[in-house]
Automatic annotation (TrEMBL):
<keyword id="KW-0460">Magnesium</keyword>
<dbReference type="InterPro" id="IPR029066">
    <property type="entry name" value="PLP-binding_barrel"/>
</dbReference>
<dbReference type="InterPro" id="IPR022657">
    <property type="entry name" value="De-COase2_CS"/>
</dbReference>
<dbReference type="InterPro" id="IPR040634">
    <property type="entry name" value="Arg_decarb_HB"/>
</dbReference>
<dbReference type="GO" id="GO:0008295">
    <property type="term" value="P:spermidine biosynthetic process"/>
</dbReference>
<protein>
    <recommendedName>
        <fullName>Arginine decarboxylase</fullName>
        <ecNumber>4.1.1.19</ecNumber>
    </recommendedName>
</protein>
<dbReference type="Pfam" id="PF17810">
    <property type="entry name" value="Arg_decarb_HB"/>
</dbReference>
<keyword id="KW-0620">Polyamine biosynthesis</keyword>
<dbReference type="InterPro" id="IPR000183">
    <property type="entry name" value="Orn/DAP/Arg_de-COase"/>
</dbReference>
<comment type="function">
    <text>Catalyzes the biosynthesis of agmatine from arginine.</text>
</comment>
<keyword id="KW-0456">Lyase</keyword>
<keyword id="KW-0210">Decarboxylase</keyword>
<feature type="domain" description="Orn/DAP/Arg decarboxylase 2 N-terminal">
    <location>
        <begin position="83"/>
        <end position="346"/>
    </location>
</feature>
<dbReference type="GO" id="GO:0046872">
    <property type="term" value="F:metal ion binding"/>
</dbReference>
<feature type="domain" description="Arginine decarboxylase helical bundle">
    <location>
        <begin position="372"/>
        <end position="456"/>
    </location>
</feature>
<feature type="domain" description="Arginine decarboxylase C-terminal helical">
    <location>
        <begin position="589"/>
        <end position="641"/>
    </location>
</feature>
<keyword id="KW-0745">Spermidine biosynthesis</keyword>
């Protein structure tokens, strides 16, 4: 018999296995140590080993799970988007400019918004807000040159604040979503004898593609119909205030999966723009909304996770379509705006989750002596296992598997009827899994195409569950809510071939608390190759591209809450090429409990009463009671997640 050498394994293979080229966007790769590293600064080769960042964060008192924010990536993405538009504008000979507008709902964290504004300063970037709280957060953040657009439902309180901002000289433009907002705005403006600046969101006939297609089209809950737009324009004209209408806007929904849909919408709105300009309403801005997609990897059949275009094509489609129609209609081109959110922030943050333990279906293997008085099914299982071990012939392997499967069913029935002892059942069960593993290993080595259905069945049965310290519902809720795929991979040991088939499950007591779609090579699979893990050893898994929407949408299922985070900058002259600018603690147990009306004082009081009663009754000694109480109290200040420490 020849011993089969496993095929050679290289870091390139790891890079391909986890499809880093598809989703990494040039930021993420693997270094010589087999560790995932990041090159966050556009155009510079400064590489930061993610494991060094984790080590330093832990040394400074952070605990896992941990969000790492690479602030430089935000800046790189802002620059990349704006430069692509500049190139498109130059290439097309477009006699106007582009400004990107950051919708803060994507990630309202102050540092994130500040980083976007800072990086976008040279490109005149603006911001967008969609609610009262967002408006109040953003107003004091912007200078007098920053364009700020206000979408969403607006009451008179918000409209007043927007007019106040205009009085102060800020470039704040309410985007009328409902006709009544226009009426309210004009009343408020008249009371103050102001000429308001405003924009209009138009309900286009073009519908978005993908999950959020209802954000556009006639059934959308947002925007004015064309008759409403005309009515609004006529009223402004009658007042001699046609120039108040400065902006036309549409939004097709997030993660536009098909660029043709965007092209069609841009053409539609540009025709409306041209008509307005020709009748004397000189609209300045054309805003193509959000929806610029991010490639999370995987196949194109999953529109939530992949897109059929890049930044360059997106910019070209917008610029050329607007120019073509403006040229045809003989009107000057507008200033172009896009409200790209996801595309600016998704890449910058990642979640580090430690593996707490592994549940292997086939463990522990126990091939002891046959228990006494075993029924014949036990020896049939033993035979199946022996045969599987001694053959390489596909047909015989499949037969062994069939026999084992049948024997297991029979053993199960005998147990129910009381004809099998626990020892006998454990022995049979263990042999069943060993047979499965033997058969699968040999079938996989034979590389049959297509693989027999038994092989697929075995792969599913033999997938390990990797229990990880996080909550799907808190940190990647879109995976649960809309089956979005996020890139997941180990952060170290990549010089070793990952030899386990694994599914990542979280801490929640919810069977949906798992990751069941992975980017794996060029397709999506329900399992991911991971390295084998020994309880107590550090094995860290990264979940990437979580910088858009996930944190703020996340919930508190099982009272697992906000995780610790660190903000990292790359810098060449620092040890490891990075420095941690800020460390934020996640929510502690007592704050989490207060949100559901359990207050620390009350909990402490009840706990000490309970303990005192047992001391008085002589159940425990007083000193032990104090220790138990102190331990309880101390933990209230700690993280809602598990510790990775194990007792030795
Ligand atoms: C959500 C939203 C955006 C941002 O969309 P992305 O897909 O993140 O780019 C932009 N504009 C409006 C009106 C929105 O509602």
């Amino acid at each position: 018999m020849t011993t089969q050498q496993p095929p050679a394994w290289s870091l390139d293979d790891a890079q391909t296995m986890y499809a880093m080229d598809v989703w990494g966007d040039g930021f993420f790769s693997i270094n010589d140590k087999g560790n995932v590293c990041v090159k966050p600064i556009e155009g510079m080769d400064i590489s930061v080993d993610i494991n060094d960042v984790i080590a330093e964060a832990l040394a400074e008192g952070s605990t896992l799970p941990l969000i790492l924010r690479f602030q430089d990536i935000i800046s790189s993405r802002v620059k990349r988007l704006n430069r692509k538009f500049r190139e498109a504008i130059e290439g097309a000979g477009y006699e106007g400019v582009y400004r990107s507008i950051f919708p803060i709902k994507v990630n309202q964290l102050q540092e994130v918004v500040a980083e976007v504004i800072e990086a976008g300063r040279e490109f005149d970037i603006g911001v967008e807000c969609g609610s009262k709280a967002e408006l109040m957060a953003a107003l004091p953040m912007i200078g007098s040159d920053t364009l700020m657009l206000c979408n969403g439902v607006k009451d008179h309180v918000m409209l007043t604040m927007m007019l106040n901002a205009q009085q102060l000289g800020q470039q704040v433009i309410p985007i009328i979503e409902k006709y009544s907002e226009f009426e309210q705005l004009m009343i408020l403006a008249d009371q103050r004898e102001l000429k308001p600046r405003l924009g209009v969101r138009v309900k286009l006939n073009t519908r978005g593609a993908g999950r959020w297609y209802e954000s556009g089209g006639a059934r959308s809950k947002f925007g004015l119909t064309v008759p409403e737009l005309v009515r609004l324009v006529k009223i402004l004209e009658k007042r001699g205030q046609g120039d108040c209408l400065e902006l036309l806007h549409f939004h097709l929904g997030s993660q536009i999966s098909d660029i043709q849909v965007l092209r069609s919408a841009v053409k539609e709105i540009t025709q409306i723009y041209a008509d307005l300009v020709l009748r004397g309403v000189s609209v300045k801005f054309l805003d193509v909304g959000g929806g610029l997609g991010v490639n999370y990897g995987g196949d194109y059949d999953n529109p939530e996770s992949s897109i059929n275009y890049g930044l360059r094509e997106y910019a070209n489609v917008v610029v050329y379509a607007v120019k073509e129609i403006c040229d045809e209609r003989g009107v000057p081109v507008p200033t172009l705006l896009s409200e790209s959110g996801r595309a600016l922030t998704a890449h910058h943050s990642m979640l580090v989750v430690p593996v707490l333990g592994v549940h292997r279906p086939d463990s522990p293997p126990m091939h002891d002596e046959t228990p006494p008085d075993s029924p014949s099914v036990v020896s049939r299982m033993e035979t199946a296992y022996e045969e599987a071990r001694s053959t390489d012939v596909t047909g015989i392997l499949l037969e062994c598997y069939h026999d084992a499967r049948e024997a297991r069913e029979e053993a199960d029935q005998l147990m129910r009827l009381g004809y099998m002892t626990l020892d006998q059942l454990a022995h049979t069960d263990s042999l069943y899994w060993s047979t499965c593993r033997e058969v699968l290993q040999k079938l996989a080595a034979a590389q049959l195409t297509p693989p027999p259905t038994e092989q697929l069945e075995l792969e599913e049965q033999l997938t390990d569950l990797y229990l990880c310290d996080f909550s799907v519902f808190h940190s990647i809720i879109d995976h649960w809510a809309i089956q979005q795929v996020f890139p997941v991979m180990p952060l170290h040991r990549l010089q070793e071939r990952p030899d386990r088939r694994a599914q990542v499950v979280d801490l929640t007591c919810d069977s949906d608390g798992k990751i069941d779609q992975y980017v794996h090579g060029h397709s999506n699979t329900s399992w991911l190759p991971l390295h084998s893990h020994k309880h107590g050893d550090a094995y860290h898994i990264g979940i990437f591209l979580v910088g858009a929407y996930q944190e703020i949408l996340g919930d508190a299922h099982n009272l697992l809450g906000r995780v610790d985070e660190v903000h990292v900058y790359a810098k060449e002259d620092e040890t490891g090429n990075f420095w941690i600018e800020e460390t934020l603690k996640g929510i502690c147990i007592k704050d989490m409990l207060s949100q559901v009306q359990y207050f620390p004082n009350d909990l402490d009081r009840r706990m000490s009463e309970l303990i005192r009663k047992q001391i008085n009754a002589g159940v425990i000694k007083a000193a032990e009671g104090t220790r138990i109480l102190n331990n309880y109290t101390k933990r209230l200040d700690e993280s809602t997640y598990c510790t990775t420490e194990v007792v030795r």
